[in-house]
Automatic annotation (TrEMBL):
A matching Pfam family: Aldolase_II
Domain Class II aldolase/adducin N-terminal: 4-172
GO biological process: pentose catabolic process
Protein name: Class II aldolase/adducin family protein
Gene3D superfamilies according to UniProt: Class II aldolase/adducin N-terminal domain
NCBIfam families: PRK08660.1 (NF006413)
UniProt-recorded Gene Ontology molecular function terms: aldehyde-lyase activity; metal ion binding
Length: 178
């Protein structure tokens, strides 16, 4: 099995407190055949072998519960990797806003607008909403749920995830000084 960096990125997600428990998932596109995704119930810092989800065909029963989002995004975009995390400040901000406009320099430079979408976890509705937003934005927050970031690599998707949390933390801290 090729090393796609799942464990390395999973450990970084934990180290930055962007996920907890066995929440969140990551995936990597495998050309035009499908993608590899974390298996449901496994931990991101110790994911084991990922499940392969074909673009057309039966989805393995142990694929991540958010496979629908990954599948829909890959079918309609050129992203090669997706990170889904549950960063607490980003999730909290999504409960109060329909979009996040970072105030920090990195956020403004790399992701000046982070859309907030809706949909129940694990549903086609969430997949459709996230995909619609990711046609125009590399990063989106599902209201009350978590971030989805797409990139050319897992590292890029991770960096966007980290950026979302940092930007939302800065917004929250700023409010303490007002």
């Amino acid at each position: 099995m090729q090393d796609y960096g799942f464990e390395r990125i999973g450990k970084r997600l934990f180290a930055e407190h962007l996920v907890g428990g066995n929440f969140g998932n990551i995936s990597v596109r495998d050309g035009e055949k499908g993608f590899f995704v974390k298996r449901t119930g496994t931990y991101l810092d110790d994911p084991g072998d990922p499940a392969f989800v074909p673009f057309h065909g039966e989805v393995p029963k142990d694929a991540s519960s958010e496979y629908r989002v990954h599948l829909a995004v890959y079918r309609k975009t050129a992203y090669k990797a997706i990170v889904h995390a549950h960063p607490p400040y980003a999730v909290a901000a999504s409960l109060e806003a329909d979009e996040i406009r970072p105030l920090d320099s990195e956020g403004i430079m790399f992701c000046p607008l982070i859309p907030v979408t809706s949909g129940d976890p694990g549903t086609q509705g969430l997949a459709d909403a996230v995909t619609a937003a990711m046609l125009h934005h590399k990063l989106v927050i599902a209201r009350g749920h978590g971030t989805f970031a797409g990139g050319a690599t897992l590292d890029e998707a991770f960096q966007l995830t980290s950026l979302a949390e940092h930007a939302c933390r800065v917004i929250a801290f700023r409010k303490m000084f007002l």
